[in-house]
User: Fold this.
Amino acid sequence: MTAREQYERFDHLARLGWELHGMGIRISLVVPVIGRPVLEMLSGNGATVHITAIRRHHDWVFTWRPWWARLWRRDKWVVANAANAADIIVAEVNA
Assistant:
């Protein structure tokens, strides 16, 4: 992964975090020394949800499911540049 891709991932997560914060959602941006940054969101029932940004083809997407869930629930992601990405994630996480 290039430095530009790392910056883009961080940028997408920070922007999403700011949007979620503006909606009154408790979030934390975790930037580990080794590994990828992740956005931790507190759901309506008190569970911590990890949101990651991954590159798919030429676009970035947010996913909030564990890697194994993506194998059988391929529709549980949203394009990072979607204007309503935060709304979609909040609705799905709290469903």
Summary: DSSP finds three helices and five strands in the chain.
